[in-house]
Write a structure and sequence with these properties.
The structure holds two protein chains of two kinds. Chain A is an all-beta fold. Chain A has no helices and eleven strands. Chain A has strands spanning 4-5, 10-14, 19-25, 32-38, 45-51, 56-58, 62-67, 72-77, 86-93, 101-103, 107-112. In chain A, strands 2, 4, 5, 9, 10 and 11 form a six-stranded mixed beta sheet that branches. In chain A, a hairpin with a 4-residue loop joins strand 7 and strand 8 (72-77). Chain B is mainly beta. Chain B contains no helices and eleven strands. Chain B has strands at 5-7, 10-13, 19-24, 31-37, 43-50, 53-57, 65-68, 75-79, 88-95, 105-106, 110-114. In chain B, strands 2, 4, 5, 6, 9, 10 and 11 form a seven-stranded mixed beta sheet that branches. Chain B is globular and about 35 Å long. Classes of the chains: A mainly beta, B mainly beta.
């Protein structure tokens, strides 16, 4: 069935380094993707999104890359800070009449000071 | 900045009891959602709601679940007869519209513990 999955369940980086969190999706019909950050005890917090007609989108310290050929999504965080420590989820929307987001399993980003 | 709020933050109940989880979506949003997250697992879609109707629901959202917008601000999820496996974090979300580019903003969640 369709699923969104993450390659690395845990990523440990040094403060100041760049982080790359990866996500694979299987539904080629998905046309909208979102990265959420979830800190302990909190709800998912929107980071950045991208539509399928784009392959790159940049925000403040974050960049999302979309490779539709291999159905791969990544989140790059520049100059990672301790406050970036959280679980990161990618989510996809199939588009059309459906509202639902399909979430991946999450990657724990641990930033070492 | 406007945000989705949820109450209570933690609900403990006995198996078989009814619970109502409450949410106040962002005020100008028209689409409302419930998701759940069992401990250590991914966030799962339960239901979406628009114009006082369910617009979509997952297979998890069986007859034990219902949603309601009782007034202009609240959005509730009711579980009629809770089961042990209903223990999870329940997140409410809202968006201005549906479809692409409609970011869903999430509340902080209600942790439901069924004993």
């Amino acid at each position: 069935g369709e699923n969104v999955g993450l390659h690395l369940p845990t990523l440990s980086v040094q403060e100041g380094d760049n982080s790359i969190i990866n996500c694979a999706y299987s539904n080629s019909a998905s046309d909208y993707f979102i990265w959420y950050k979830q800190e302990s005890g909190k709800g998912p917090q929107f980071i950045i999104d991208i539509r399928s007609n784009m392959d790159k989108r940049q925000g403040q310290r974050v960049t999302v890359l979309l490779n539709k050929t291999v159905k791969h999504l990544s989140l790059q965080i520049a100059a990672t800070q301790p406050g970036d420590s959280a679980v990161y989820f990618c989510a996809e929307n199939y588009g059309g009449a459906t509202n639902k987001l399909i979430f991946g399993t999450g990657t724990l980003l641990a930033v070492q000071p | 900045e406007p945000e989705v709020t949820q109450t209570p933050s933690h609900q403990v109940t006995q198996m078989g009891q009814e619970v109502i989880l409450r949410c106040v979506p962002i005020s100008n949003h028209l689409y409302f959602y419930w998701y759940r997250q069992i401990l250590g697992q991914k966030v799962e879609f339960l239901v979406s709601f628009y114009n006082n109707e369910i617009s979509e629901k997952s297979e998890i959202f069986d007859d034990q679940f219902s949603v309601e917008r009782p007034d202009g601000s609240n959005f509730t999820l009711k579980i009629r007869s809770t089961k042990l496996e209903d223990s999870a974090m329940y997140f409410c979300a809202s968006s201005v519209r549906q479809g692409p580019l409609q970011v869903q903003f999430f509340g902080p969640g209600t942790r439901l513990t069924v004993l």
